[in-house]
Design brief:
The complex is a heterodimer of chains A (about 90) and B (about 650). Chain A is mainly alpha-helical. Chain A has one domain. Helices cover about 70% and strands about 5% of the residues of chain A. In chain A, strand 1 and strand 2 form a beta hairpin. In chain A, helix 1 packs antiparallel against helix 2. Chain A is elongated and about 60 Å long. With about 650 residues, chain B is α+β, with helices and mostly antiparallel strands. In chain B, strands 7, 8, 9, 10, 11, 12 and 13 form a seven-stranded antiparallel sheet that branches. Chain B has a six-stranded antiparallel sheet with strand order 2-1-6-5-4-3, with no helix packed on it. In chain B, helix 7 runs antiparallel to helix 17, helix 18 runs antiparallel to helix 19 and helix 18 packs across helix 21. The chains are: A mainly alpha (about 90), B alpha+beta (about 650). Chains A and B meet through helix 1, strand 2 and helix 2 of A and helix 2, helix 5, helix 9, helix 11 and helix 13 of B.
């Protein structure tokens, strides 16, 4: 077996981070599917004004992009917290 | 055709190339080890790597292709922006950290980490090569396309120039120089797209795109019953008429011995000028009835009505981004629709009045509403496209190898977030750049890909030159990344791991460089051979193959303990074969073969909706049948 290009420290937080990643991924998939489903079932809805003078297509489309960015920051914030806590705890034990 | 050679574009491009080559020389001295060559020694800062991700990802297809598609078909082009960005969510939440944890230099390493299986090494290496080559072809063809108008050189020179520079970049310092090229290019692209968007908003909307904008001729029509018999102006002589699609009447009309084409209006009262390109028996082309040098093939795209707060205006002055969109929604514009008149070897583009409302919601390109004539297949095509975009990104080999250039899992995650922010921001700008191009009289109907650069030219030659030089650089950067990925598949996965050739570190680097050289030459040849091919197909193909062949393997490896080596290998093979077969039998390719679209056995252009589930089913069945193989596997992931 071979290891990574840079030597990695053992990451005790991997399992927790992976679970959080899956939850956020499923959440995003639901929101993304909503966009696709509206497009399929009733594309005319995309032309309706919903916020200010912007139609659903613009709000939902921009929303999906901005949501991905915001969720990325939240994920990183929580992961960093988990890593600091767990890796410190486990290293303290070993 | 409509653009002159820009000296500044050449100077800026040469400056950029010189800088990149200088960087490559500088890093070449430091790149002696295999880790340095394939993974930049794992020492790149996450911020730099994040922007380099953006550089990798925002290829010519993104920058030139999406802007062009929005300019020609409105919001439907923006669907690509949304899908391409959403794909990064998969990369961040699911793929980034495990890929970093499991792999060494390539995506094959990560897939194979638990198994040490020859079949995975071989199939994953082949899949990497296929996806990279499909991605390479459009980049090389695009390089040639850019060179023709901007530097005044023939197509093959463009391909050769880009190919040679890229081989040099990769063969000198591998992933290190590639990373910095991508970083510089990604950064510049985002900065200058922001500047271009600022210009668009400052300019606002205007009924008159410019003083030299072509005024389209409208003449009266004389009809008998349904039949067009003459024009109301005797200087325009009706030569012939053609009915296309059963409802459109096109008229060939001569004036002062110059042939032009007109379309009969819906109420049969008038004839509206169209733009045309006719192939002559001697092989030359006439643009609106005259040789190319007469410059009669105009840049087009204009507004016919602007409404601000319920009042019609001539121009709006500067607008904020949201006001720009809502004002455009209340306005009307002219798009151009392309049709071929085979009997005359002529292509015409007729004026199509389009409401702003239709321009900023889906439906102009993808007929997904039943009212617009959607069928089961058109709807399935739409879902399939969104699926391939979503699952394709995190399975592209040249994106995956970038996880090995950073020092830790944390850095892999952070660089992905920087990438999402940078790419997401850029994709929001594509909507403004595309729409801006559609209404400012800059479109070249022959090449939608030039919409972005031509819009820049509308605001000044300086901006045009810089944007064009960045477009060249875009091709350079993406091709370098693809060649590193391909050379890794050949030298590291295949020669070193699969064939088990005993090589020391120095020999591994040499093998990688030789492989890069070989792939580079191959890419140059393909770029020349595929000249004129509709390149967006090939990018779509690369995404579909990546999503079908690689992603099920990655996801099941990470989340299903019963996955076996044979399951992964067979799933990769199934994904490759099924996606390529469906595309080969698709309506769009049937059209390319010169056959009718309706005769295609599978009425689907995007294979994802069939090939992705098929790869998953094969993976599950084969894994369940080969459970005994898993007894000896290396349990280094789930026990973390």
């Amino acid at each position: 077996m071979h290891g990574p290009a840079a030597k990695l420290e053992k990451d005790y937080a991997a399992a927790k981070k992976s679970r959080l990643g899956v939850i956020l991924f499923v959440f995003y998939i639901l929101v993304y599917s909503g966009f696709v489903i509206i497009g399929l079932i009733d594309p005319e809805l995309m032309g309706l004004h919903i916020i200010g003078k912007q139609n659903l297509a613009i709000v939902y489309g921009f929303g999906l992009i901005i949501l991905a960015i915001i969720m990325g920051f939240i994920y990183n914030y929580i992961c960093t917290g988990i890593e600091n806590k767990m890796n410190k705890e486990m290293e303290g034990r070993s | 055709m409509i653009y002159d050679v820009s000296i500044w574009a050449i100077i800026i491009f040469i400056f950029f190339v010189a800088m990149v080559l200088g960087l490559s020389f500088y890093f070449a001295r430091k790149t002696k080890s295999a880790s340095g060559y394939y993974a930049a020694g794992g020492k790149i800062h996450w911020g730099v790597n994040g922007i380099a991700f953006a550089g990798d990802y925002l290829s010519a297809a993104s920058f030139l292709g999406i802007c062009g598609m929005i300019a020609f078909s409105g919001y439907d082009g923006f669907l690509y922006s949304i899908g391409y960005l959403a794909g990064w969510v998969v990369a961040l939440f699911i793929v980034a950290e495990p890929m970093k944890r499991l792999g060494k230099y390539t995506f094959t390493d990560a897939l194979d980490a638990r198994f040490n299986s020859k079949s995975i090494k071989l199939t994953a290496a082949i899949s990497t090569l296929i996806v990279s080559v499909f991605y390479l072809i459009p980049q090389m063809v695009g390089a040639g396309d850019l060179v023709v108008p901007l530097l005044g050189l023939p197509h093959w020179t463009g391909v050769l120039i880009v190919g040679s520079i890229v081989i040099f970049i990769v063969a000198t310092a591998g992933m290190t120089s590639t990373t910095y090229v991508q970083f510089i290019k990604g950064g510049l692209l985002i900065i200058f797209s922001t500047i271009l968007t600022a210009y668009i908003l400052k300019n606002g909307l205007n009924l008159n795109p410019g003083d030299d904008y072509h005024e389209f001729i409208k003449i009266g029509a004389v009809t008998e019953g349904d039949k067009l018999t003459a024009t109301s102006d005797s200087s325009y002589i009706l030569k012939n008429t053609y009915t296309v699609d059963g409802k459109l009447t096109f008229a060939k009309i001569e004036k002062d011995q110059i042939t032009r084409w007109f379309k009969l209006s819906a109420d049969s009262s008038s004839l509206d000028e169209m733009l045309s390109i006719s192939l002559q028996p001697d092989g030359t082309k006439l643009y609106n009835g005259e040789p190319k040098s007469a410059s009669k093939f105009y840049q087009v795209g204009h507004l016919t009505r602007i409404e601000v707060d319920g009042e019609e205006v001539e121009e709006t002055g500067p607008l904020g981004p949201f006001k720009y969109l809502s004002t455009l929604e209340n306005s009307d514009l002219i798009r151009f629709t392309k049709k071929d008149i085979k009997e005359e070897q002529t292509t015409v583009w007729f004026q199509t009045a389009t409401s702003g409302k239709d321009m900023i919601k889906p439906g102009l390109l993808y007929k997904i509403s039943t009212r617009a004539g959607a069928t089961f297949w058109t709807k399935l095509n739409f879902v399939s496209l969104m699926l391939a975009l979503f699952f394709g990104t995190s399975a592209l080999p040249h994106i995956l190898i970038r996880y090995y250039t950073v020092p830790s899992q944390k850095a892999a995650r952070k660089s992905t977030i920087v990438a999402i922010a940078a790419i997401g921001f850029f994709y929001m700008l594509t909507l403004f750049m595309g729409l801006g191009a559609s209404v400012n009289g800059v479109l070249d109907l022959e090449s939608s890909n030039m919409s972005g650069p031509l819009l820049a030219k509308f605001f000044g030659v300086g901006l045009f030159s810089i944007i064009s030089a960045i477009a060249f650089a875009t091709v350079l950067g993406t091709v370098s990344g693809l060649i590193v990925a391909s050379s890794g598949a050949i030298a590291h996965d295949f020669m070193d791991k699969y064939l088990n050739m005993k090589m020391n570190d120095k020999q591994k680097v040499k093998a990688g460089k030789l492989a890069a050289f070989g792939v580079g030459i191959f890419a140059i040849i393909l770029g020349i051979l595929f000249k004129g091919m509709n390149v967006s197909f090939l990018v779509g193909l690369a995404f579909a193959v990546a999503a079908s062949a690689n992603l099920p393997a990655i996801l099941f490896l990470l989340f299903w303990k019963k996955t076996t080596a044979k399951g992964i290998a067979w799933s990769i093979v199934t994904g490759i074969i099924s996606s390529i077969t469906i595309i080969a039998l698709s309506p769009s390719l049937f059209e390319q073969y010169g056959l009718s679209k309706a005769s295609a056995p599978i009425q689907l252009d995007n294979p994802g909706i069939i090939s992705i589930p098929l790869a998953v089913i094969v993976l599950v069945i084969v894994s369940l049948m080969t459970q005994k193989d898993n007894v000896n596997k290396v349990e280094n992931y789930h026990n973390d």
